[in-house]
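User: Before I run my own analysis I want an independent prediction to cross-check against. Here's the chain; please return only the structure tokens and, at the end, one sentence I can use as a sanity check.
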Amino acid sequence: MRSVAVGVSLLALSSMVLVGCGKSGSSGQAAACQPAKGDQLVVLTDDKHLQTVDNIIPAIYRPAATPVLIRAVDKVSGALTTSKLIALNKQVDLERKTATTVADGFVSDNGLTGGLTGGSGAIQVGAANFSESQILANVYAKVLTAAGFNATVRSVGNRELYLKSLSKGEIDVIPEYAGTLTEFLNKQQNGPSPAPRASSDLAATVTALTALGAKANLVFGAPSQAADQNAFAVTKAYADANGLRTLSDLASKCNGGELILGGPPECPQRPFCQAGLEQVYGIKFTGFQSLDSGGPLTKTAIKEGKVEIGLVFSSDGSLTG
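Assistant: Structure tokens:
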């Protein structure tokens, strides 16, 4: 996802002021969940699949997509999980290690350089303008180098810029996000308001992406298990105190008391943010606080108990993986 997610859902973060857990009062409503401030955030599982999938997937310039290159980047996809991605982002965003150092450690720890041969020639790996993309681009480059390519990383800005470069072969491969890229290409090719092609079904989304990518001179490697989606987070203390693991838990245990959602200004009207939470899960919010999109304002508000739940990105390094 990252940069600006087109066609992908928004999330909400929760902090510690929620309403009672588990027991119903005489009115039949749940008693208020116990508030619990804390420094650790956890994502509540989207068990009814409100959000569109956004698994990391290698996007490749078609003429560069040799079997050797695809095997190399698919080996990376096979090693990536969301919990590992959170750990990688934590090292760069919180511990201030370089993307190159973190990529080195991931490649070594997961044995990604073994058994890869047959590559040759120069390969340019694109890295978008945020740390997660830079980490993954360096991982791709190290594995491609082990396969025999002369792989280098090139910073390429945002999606609007780098997709043009990728389609022309100015870069050869870049880590992308299945749902976001599907809807970006869908709008690019089919107008500003086409029927959505991305969904909560990964296989169906990748099938749609493959067809759209063919028109842009792109092919794709295997999607990883790791996803960077919009998500809804609460403090770990709040989740533990109230027995919350899923968004359905929040709806069943915490409706009936104070429940404030934090997120970007557009969240209340978005079908994948407040409007979707209310419709799909039946969550009854008592207020909304306009903050940012998965950024420090929202995360701080959750930790300090100013909101109960808020919008985050599922691979954020500050989350408990």
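Sanity check: The radius of gyration is 21 Å.
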